[in-house]
Write a structure and sequence with these properties.
The chain is an alpha+beta fold. It has 3 helices and 11 strands, in the order αβββββαββββαββ.
């Protein structure tokens, strides 16, 4: 082997050693990244804004793959977790779905039925009543005959709110064009048959229906003698 051939062999060996060194370096970087990132898991991202109290479905979310170590313990990784759930707050487009963003949809108890009525947004909701809340329902009535006093009555106590619909503009009745158009919210309650009759009667004939939020954990009822109010009898 002459000197030129020896130089060629040496250069070839150096090239092989450099290639092995580069490969080892790349492999080290990959291993380092994998050790920091870890395995990927499935998570779900919100496709478009979801309003509070809206029922959830698989079509509202898209699957994404993310490193497991980057996800919080509350991240939803299986869409079966949203079955029978509603959003507890506004779900923003692009945000990752978390289990603390959703709650169980309130359900009917034996002997109850769903009843929905329109409640004036200005006097009935005030943004603080949510599905699962308990409310007392007040209604004001004109006197039945001329000279009879107007009355405020508690129609239903501890009514359970199942759902709150979208704000809806209401036009005044054809025979009462002097009143301005108002906005109302359809609210669905879980009620007994008797309370369902009371609340629908109030919606049809009362001058105004108002909801009063009951404090969480409160189980007491209001005595019958305290459920009707007349200004003239106030002492």
């Amino acid at each position: 082997m002459n000197s030129r051939q020896r130089r060629g062999v040496i250069l070839l060996l150096l090239s092989v050693l450099c290639a092995l060194g580069a490969f080892a370096g790349v492999l080290s970087v990959v291993n380092d990244v994998e050790s920091k990132v870890g395995p990927e898991v499935t998570a779900y991202r919100v496709k478009s804004n979801v309003e509070p109290y809206e029922s959830l479905g698989a079509g509202q979310f898209e699957k994404v793959e993310m490193p497991e170590r980057w996800l919080s313990d509350t991240a939803v990784t299986d869409l079966r977790q949203i079955e029978g759930k509603i959003a507890v707050t506004t779900l923003k487009k692009g945000s990752l779905l978390q289990s603390d963003m959703i709650v169980d949809q309130p359900a009917l108890q034996p002997g109850q039925q769903e009843v929905a009525i329109m409640i004036d947004a200005a006097t009935g909701v005030a943004g603080k009543i949510t599905p699962g809340s308990k409310v007392n329902v007040y209604a004001t009535f004109e006197g039945q005959r001329e000279g009879d006093p107007d009355q405020s009555k508690i129609i239903v106590t501890n009514a359970v709110v199942l759902d709150i619909g979208d704000l809806t503009p209401l036009e005044p009745d054809a025979d009462d064009r002097s009143r301005e158009a108002t906005k109302a919210v359809p609210i669905t309650f879980a009620l007994s048959a008797v309370d369902a009759q009371r609340i629908t009667y109030a919606e049809s004939f009362a001058q105004r229906v108002r909801l009063a939020l009951v404090a969480p954990g409160e189980t007491g009822t209001i005595p019958e003698q305290d459920r009707t109010y007349e200004l003239a009898k106030d002492k």
